[in-house]
Amino acid sequence: RNMVHLEFAQESEFLGYTTETAEGEIVAIVADGKPVDSAPIGTEVAVLLNQTPFYAESGGQVGDIGRIIGPEGEMEVNTTLKDPTGLIIHKGRLRSGRLRKGDTLTLLVDGFAREATARNHTATHLLHSALRSVLGEHVKQAGSLVAPDRLRFDFTHFSQVQTETLERIESLVNQGIRANVPTQVAEMAAEEAFKSGAMALFEEKYGDRVRVVALEDISKELCGGTHTARTGNI
């Protein structure tokens, strides 16, 4: 996927849990796989910033899209990725002017796509809970896609799920949506989170501090993704 491998002492600070707009400084620009000091209009680039509200693709959730506006030019962000060291990489095309290393930029996440993705991510948690309630607690998430237009949830089970059972699962998810429960997010020590009964997913790596997303008594999962404020928004 033409990932950019860069080595920097500085990590990008992610601001996107609380805002969709921010200012940031260009730490590096990469074009054709090589670091450059500046890039002109039309160039496909990857940009690294000291801080960003753009969510980088992880945990099944797609990366944010949007715009980056500098003193001399504007970039359209087509996707946001994380490199293997955790750096947040903004990829896209220069639509006008020029970007230069060291520029201070205005960073604008596409709020429509972000909120649509957030609704689908919260729906994924409702679906996970409903599957475990109906099919049994052996059900484990085995991959997912959370995008603005849809969600896909992969899980392990003994056999194909019958139509009547799918209808029960759908009904449970819809009950959770109609209940309009708030999405509660808390950061805590990993040990404390596991003791509280928060579910962890196999494909995620967890540090000493974790983020727990709870939907009242319906669901409690370790999750780094973005979520809608209430289930009724879904």
Describe the structure.
The protein has a 6-stranded antiparallel barrel with strand order 2-5-9-8-7-10. Strands 13-14-15 form a 3-stranded antiparallel sheet. It has 234 residues and is an alpha+beta fold. The protein has helices at residues 111-135, 163-178, 190-195, and strands at residues 13-14, 21-31, 34-36, 38-40, 44-49, 51-52, 66-69, 73-82, 88-100, 104-109, 141-146, 151-155, 184-189, 209-215, 219-222. Helix 1 packs across helix 2. Strand 14 (209-215) and strand 15 (219-222) form a beta hairpin.
Keywords:
234 residues; alpha+beta; six-stranded antiparallel barrel; three-stranded antiparallel β-sheet; 20% helix
Distance N terminus to C terminus? 31 Å
The helix/strand order is: EEEEEEEEEEHEEHEHEE
Question: How are strands sequenced across the largest beta sheet?
Answer: 2-5-9-8-7-10
Structural category is: alpha+beta
Write the layout of secondary structure elements.
Layout: E1 13-14, E2 21-31, E3 34-36, E4 38-40, E5 44-49, E6 51-52, E7 66-69, E8 73-82, E9 88-100, E10 104-109, H1 111-135, E11 141-146, E12 151-155, H2 163-178, E13 184-189, H3 190-195, E14 209-215, E15 219-222
Parallel strand pairs: 1-6
Antiparallel strand pairs: 2-3, 2-5, 2-10, 4-9, 5-9, 7-8, 7-10, 8-9, 11-12, 13-14, 14-15
